Amino acid sequence: MNKSSKRFDQIYGEQAPESIPWNSLELPTSIYDLIKNKQIKACRAIDIGCGLGNYSRILSKMGFKMTGIDFSSVATEKAQKLADKELLSIEMYIRNVAKLLNDNAYYFTIAFNEEDDYFEGKGKFRETPTGSVLYFSNPNEIQKLFSPLFHILDLKNIAIPGKNGNHRAYYAFMQKKNAV
C-alpha cells in the first residue's frame, strides 16, 4: 500500500460521503451525452478510480455491466456494499489499472484543468481541503501522455459539477492502439 492509497483509505474511512469533494451523485454530462447520442451503447465498462462507485451504479442501472476499480480498499468495500444494497451486479476491485488495458478498447478519462481556480495554488499537483492531492493537466500534455498508446477520438474542456460549484476539466475519449 502506498502513501496515496493510505490517505484515500483514511478519507473514505473517516469522512461522510457528502463531504468528499469529488463524490458526485451525478453522471458527468459528457458521459451521458456519449450514451444519449449512441456513441457508446450499454456494454461491459470499467470505472477506473471509482471511489464509492456512484458512476458505476448509475451506469449499471442504464444497462452497463460494470466493474469498479480503485486503489482504496475502504472505498471499494463501501462501493460494493452500496451496489449490493441496490441489488446491482457490480464487481469492485483494488487493482493496478495499467495491467487492465485491452487493445482496441475504448477509454474515457477526465483530468482537472490546470486553470481551474477552485483549488488553491498553482502547479500540477494541488492539495484539496481533505488532504488528498489531485493532478491538473492541459490538452497538450494529455495528447503527449496518451497519443503513444491511444487514438484520441475526442478531447475537450468540460465542467464537472462539484459540491461548491463546477470544476474545469478536460475529457478524453480514446481507443487503445494495438500492442506492437
From TrEMBL:
Stored InterPro entries: Methyltranfer_dom (IPR025714), SAM-dependent_MTases_sf (IPR029063)
GO biological process per UniProt: methylation
Annotated ranges, domain Methyltransferase: 41-102
Record keywords: Methyltransferase, Transferase
Keyword Transferase: yes
GO MF: methyltransferase activity
Name of the protein in question: Class I SAM-dependent methyltransferase
Organism: Ancylomarina euxinus
